[in-house]
């Protein structure tokens, strides 16, 4: 006993000498939970890729701003033909890739053609489906012709999967990403951290930070000590359960924003008895969203009534459509001929919202006579059994893609939902670019989903950011999964 | 000795072949498609199929097994699906963390455990013994991640002597790298030391009851000399066995500590590869670990012969 105290004391003394002072004010260490599998945003669905590279290293024709708005990026302006099919982009000139090669219209054509090619493994290939041809008019002008008008085309071009890459470096971006952004890639210590440094010849407003390190911290238990010790100065995606430990500490800022993650109780709409509208509605009445948010997300997160973020400009509040009403739920089950209740399974992927939320939902559904067997699954299993093979009754998952209400109209999607009226609204939406009309159509779409009680709409996943109180410019909301550092700086 | 070694070698090879079959079969049965996992929920079935072809996942099972084991024989461990770099490079990077960590932890654990065990055994039943064995009991019972968190709060948050976690890499210098391994090594070492101290104590007590100890004492050797020269050496066999087991555990079973300190070690590589269905990484790393465990066991067996000359002559 005495011995190890002596050893510790010796360690303390010898370490004291090697302690460094505070980091310089142009340095930033950001904690991220998952390591990207590789560093090419055009070749994978993992959100962690965009969380490091989007807007920092890679840029697109357009980009998504902090509140989900479409902003010009490499394209300084554009014109749209009257029939909505031809987009002519005017590009910034004098732009260079980090390896010194010039950026021009040919790179745009290369990137878009590469993403939509037959052998492309771009994870969001659907974004490029409407493109018919891409033509280089001159080095600073590119013309994109669509097969049909597409209301969301400019937004689509702002995704991380649509960033512009150079033919010289496209094949090696996975290991050594070369983009046009204000930061360039410096190093990747696998399993540990990825370091970006300021690019000297950036075409736009240069970044304030000289160096940004993304450190991979997989365990939420390590977040608080890392902040308190000053090792890491920002966690843009913090853990809900640990918020209480830092929220009253003046050294840190806790910022609760919105994501595009609609957290839902997915229902297999073709599997009896869930094919009956009354049964799905009964489930919606049986859910007490407040209790779920309190239990699964530490009380953070806004309830939703359909598949749309409350932060979205086209959001319609439908949370009152199915108030928590056990009697009504039982009555609907009786109408469906299931007054004695029934048994079903609930498959839960690993995130906390699913595992904790699942237990609460199981107890709420038990109150109306639905007896759920909880089956925890890994992500790989979930994608295989639930998402691909549709072998499930109920599951909980957060759909984090932005503006993804169209998934309910996809053929063969895992909800097994099929409503021609809804499909028509989405088809109309696809060819409408008028803002007012889009708003109306999106409103209709939300209402149809709520009326059909396609799934149990729970809440919008919150974006919980915790960072040093002197740090400015990190995003409050997460309209896309990104850590845009272009405007981040230290105060003082 | 040669016959003994040859026999051990044959057993080791048979174990490796069997392990390769089990590992391959288990990962094949495991549900989950690496291609779908990489492309996410928005990709079409055709695209997933395309990627599966590119990754060589659609080849027949037997061919893939032979291809993999054939590669292993020529020391080619394949390429990671997710990282698309050779598996051996990943392992080398991770071993740069895991191996020093395991060695430091093992050294700390031995340095703590043997003196404590000696102290306890020589003071059997007295206050000192009760206290140190009580502490050891606590060390066995308290989970190492809790130790880890307490160490972080004291040494990283409060005293700010070492980083709370992370690994700067050996390229950042020996001292910064070592510094980041100290707390995790200590957190790993304490519970191991507790076990080892108890084993040392009971082995010593058993030996101290032997007739030859009484004889040694009777012929006038001082107690201290008997303890060090006669008792400790004879008590080493169970201690070495435990040490061997602990080293194998420390090499790959440290995933919890690696997570708490966010260290890029071997345990986390395997864990991450399993969740991402990076099958080739799991398969190859597990095989390497099997080989390492077999090698350590062999070393332990040989070390018995070093501490106990009787075992040497018997062969």
UniProtKB/TrEMBL annotation, chain A:
One of its GO terms (biological process) is peptide transport. Residues 69-398 form the Solute-binding protein family domain. Gene3D superfamilies: Dipeptide-binding Protein, Domain 1, Dipeptide-binding Protein, Domain 3, Periplasmic binding protein-like II. The keyword Transport does not apply. It is found in: Periplasm. The keyword Protein biosynthesis does not apply. InterPro entries: Peptide/Ni-bd (IPR030678), SBP_5 (IPR039424), SBP_5_dom (IPR000914). Residues 1-23 form the signal peptide. Keywords: Signal. Transmembrane segments: none annotated. GO terms for molecular function: peptide transmembrane transporter activity. Belongs to the bacterial solute-binding protein 5 family. This is Extracellular solute-binding protein family 5.
UniProtKB/TrEMBL annotation, chain B:
It comes from the Bacteria. SUPFAM superfamilies: MetI-like. It is a multi-pass membrane protein. PROSITE patterns: ABC_TM1. GO terms for molecular function: dipeptide transmembrane transporter activity. It is found in: Cell membrane. Keywords: Cell membrane, Membrane, Transmembrane, Transmembrane helix, Transport. PANTHER family: DIPEPTIDE TRANSPORT SYSTEM PERMEASE PROTEIN DPPB-RELATED (PTHR43163). Belongs to the binding-protein-dependent transport system permease family. This is Binding-protein-dependent transport systems inner membrane component. It comes from Mesorhizobium ciceri biovar biserrulae (strain HAMBI 2942 / LMG 23838 / WSM1271).
